[in-house]
Amino acid sequence: MGEMSKVLILTKEDIESLVTMEDAIAAVEEGFKAFNSDRAVVPFPVALNVPDGHGDIHIKPGYMKGTSSYTVKIASGFYDNPKRGLSTSHGMLLLFDSRTGHPLCFEVDRCFLTDLRTAAAGAVAAKVLAKKSVSKVAVIGTGTQARMQLIALSKVRKFDELMVWGRDPKKSEAYASEMSKVLGVKVVPAKTAEDAVRGSEVVVTATMSVSPVVKVDWISGGTHITAMGSDEPGKQELDTKILARADKVVVDSLKQCARLGEVHHALEDGSINEGDVHAELGEILLGKKPGRESDKEVTVCDLTGIAIQDVAISQFVYEKAKRSGKGFYIEV
């Protein structure tokens, strides 16, 4: 008979009290560096579709060499849940001892850490690819990521005005009312996506669109675009001509973006080839390749989300929880 393991259980409320956006940005940056310095073990994620429940599940395992644990994340979206009075998203991160395989911690974050690390990745991208000085930014989308991405962006770039566009004008207005208070800047609901994007120096796309919502003609010199909604082959937010026009196309993982992201669509229609991708984000952070080199460059970062982000943030939370005494233990 196997011996029992003592496992730390952390609720979403515990986790929210342990980690800030600044913590997440720092952790995710280290994760990207590990990814591009042969310290990350990251297999391709597993996607499970549950058609009977109109749901999908993503399973992402990962390990950072030299650390005491590995992480398996399970995150789900069940899109009929609001009709049942339930949230669409759920999930948790499971940490195991990297020497024995025994469970160490179950972070029942209900997708909070996924949202946080996804937003943090956008901030890391902007840190090395956006102009140092920006005034006007735009977000396409009005959901959780559209909120968190802009909170994260505000930690690395100051801006005066935010344009927001979503398909539902009421949601855009609600977003503007809420986020003007959160960010302390002017937030304007745009009538069209074009109105939001034109003249913006940073553009964040955070939608579930299956067809392009941002067109190449709207993009000015010096613009940085962070596209994070295309995390499945059928999703797309950017006109592929944008990637062809960009001075630098950067990805979190070229292997993954070639199968899932905006890069996937541009490769498929011949707008670019893999050699046109300038760098993976970690390569820029490590100084292996340059980030933005002039205020005239158009830069695009295609973020599909990689497991090393989950590893980095989950380990940070686990270690801090142990120091602070958060959570409770069970034996399994």
How would you characterize the overall build of this protein?
This protein is of the alpha/beta class and 332 residues long. It has eleven helices and 18 strands. It folds into two domains: 132 residues, 2-Layer Sandwich (ornithine cyclodeaminase, domain 1); 178 residues, Rossmann fold (3-Layer(aba) Sandwich). The chain is globular. The mean pLDDT is 96. The protein starts with 5 loop residues before the first strand and ends with a strand. The strands form three sheets. Strands 1, 2, 3, 4, 5, 6, 7 and 18 form an eight-stranded mixed sheet that branches. An eight-stranded parallel sheet has the order 10-9-8-11-13-17-15-16. Helix 2 packs across helix 3, helix 2 packs across helix 11 and helix 3 crosses helix 4. Helix 5 links the parallel strand 9 and strand 10. The longest helix is centred in the middle third of the chain and has 18 residues. 34% of the residues lie in helices and 28% in strands.
- Summed over residues and divided by their number, the pLDDT gives a mean of 96
- Report the CATH superfamily of the largest domain: NAD(P)-binding Rossmann-like Domain
H-E order: EHHEEEEEEHEHEHEHEEEEHEHHEHEHE
Overall strand count: 18
* Whole-number tally of structural domains: 2
Could you tell me the radius of gyration in angstroms?
Answer: 20 Å
Distance between the termini: 13 Å
Largest sheet: 8 strands, mixed
Q: SS-based structural class?
A: alpha/beta
